[in-house]
Protein: Tetratricopeptide repeat protein
Organism: Candidatus Desulfovibrio intestinavium
Amino acid sequence: MPEGPLPQAGGVSRTVCVLSCLVCLLAGILLGNGLPQLLDTARRADPPREESAEQAQGPLPDGATARSESPSPESGRQNPAPAEPAPPASQEQHIARLEQALREQPDDAARWTELGNAYFDEKEHGKAIEAYGRSLALRPNNPNVLTDLGIMYRETGQYERALKCFDQAMRLEPAHEYARFNKGIVLLFDLHRHAEAKAVWQELLRLNPRAVAPDGTRLDELIRQCDKPLPPRQQ
């Protein structure tokens, strides 16, 4: 799954994901890479056909700017006619096309990730888990996919599995801010393991002293919440 303010998860991770983590947060929504959006997984710009672990999402480091796309080459025609814009495909059509492509080429890890991202955005958590699992079976060491899979496990109440995914992502990429932030969310808001959440976020703060949650709340303020009793998570 990009560092600075933690990216919005809903999305790139989409890898770049992430969920909309409102810290009024006592509802505790994770970051994604990806993305969609944890930080909504602000996530996720649709992934290129082959996504590398370095393209993970995460908060952009301070002062970092998005890489601009190189301009496309000019056409040979002096006055090309404007192309008719194609109507945007619906998400349902997009998913159907991905499913058809995967029936024809089931060993395409990048497409399984893309399908998982589409299900993530549609809140089809079980289907997203299956698609991300297929992607990881083909390409096991993708920390962004592991982070988004962890978010989906968290959304289905499988908190220990979510933690395992975040831990695996951090083993592969110790500076993966999305995974670290999300692990703290699960520990604090879902499992009420305050001391562990505090330790996870203190390490994130060490890696990125200016890290903030998606709603702009400073991470050091969230860490202070680890010492307070929390209301039960709203369903």
